[in-house]
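Researcher: I've got a protein sequence and the SMILES for pyridoxal-5'-phosphate. Could you write out the 3D structure of the bound complex as structure tokens? I'd like something to compare against our soaking experiments later this week.
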Amino acid sequence: MPKILLEKITQVKPFLDERELEPLRESIDNKWLTEGPWSKLFLERLKEFTGSPYAVLAPNGTLGLFLGILALDLPRGSEIIMPSFTFFASASSAYFAGLRPVFVDVDDDTFNIDVNLIEEAINENTSAIMPVHIYGHSCRIDEVIRISEKHGLKVIEDAAQSLGVFYNGSHTGTFGDTSAISFFADKTVTTGEGAVVFARDEVIYDRLLCLRNQGRKKSGSFIHPEMGMNFRITDMQCAVGLSQMDKFEAIRQKRLRIDTLYREGLNGVGDIRFLKVENGSTFVPFRFVIRTESKDALISHLEACGIETRSFFYPMHLQPPFRGNANKSLPVSEGLYSSGICLPLHHYLKEDDIYFIVQKIREFFGE
Ligand SMILES: Cc1ncc(COP(=O)(O)O)c(C=O)c1O
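Model: Sure. Here is the predicted complex with pyridoxal-5'-phosphate in place.
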């Protein structure tokens, strides 16, 4: 029987097994569910792994970015520059923190913010830049930092997709004033929902602590010196996160292998183009992404073969809530949406699955 009738090849599937269950059981046995021993260890592991000295946890990447923006006390109504090609959360977190997202186009090869377009978007109302490290590699964050310093702007890095990605030897998310890495179920390392927020210095770190814990640095007191809310997560999530961190290298190696197999199998097929990894960046493939002018037809073909696909992001400057912010077309972001397809990429994929997907794509292009 052909494989397609047996099972669908899914886009993502988290790498979960007994190793997550064991510490989870301990949480239940200890009757300790909110932030506690596992959270402490998870945070320490993340700081050690990334080299960031200041880190707090958050309920998800969106709220992590929101928290990271709030901690910088930027003027309400001021503008934050970000790429149009990103997930909606980059823009929505800024919006709810009282800022006005201003979108610039991205680089046609790397899909990351085009650093040559940032300065022309800066005006007297600009307070910050939010670069995004898309699809598992770094943007030109050194250049973003240089521009921000020249113009006195803050930087919030959207590192949601870039756990384990280093740029010129430093981990993404450690360059800006604040940043957030997501642990959503489709991320390289997952806690179901969850995120870590990094801070450049102790002052910002103290702001993060207060903002995430009802305006106090530590629980136990009912005097709240500042304003704050509840951004805690659970110890059970951190138990899962710690086991996931133990698996990081295996996850990375598997993803790189899949990426290589796809590239070898699809090189020169039809009009397919690949992502180019930024110079100076390491790569932890987040999706396997291809571009083709036959996007819709190829998606239909693959879906009919039982291969789950996903489209690229719809540009932010065209999103209904942000259309008023757009004063021009951003052709690369628009082109990415009209040509981009994400192919399955997860730990449970077998080499035969990749050969099958490659074969179906080659068939589509008549090869
Ligand atoms: C680029 C980017 N930013 C922010 C987020 C938001 O993270 P979360 O889903 O954990 O809220 C995501 C999640 O997919 C993302 O891909």
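Model: The first strand starts at residue 54 and ends at 58. Residues 248-266 form the longest helix (19 residues).
Researcher: Great, I'll pass this along to the crystallography team.
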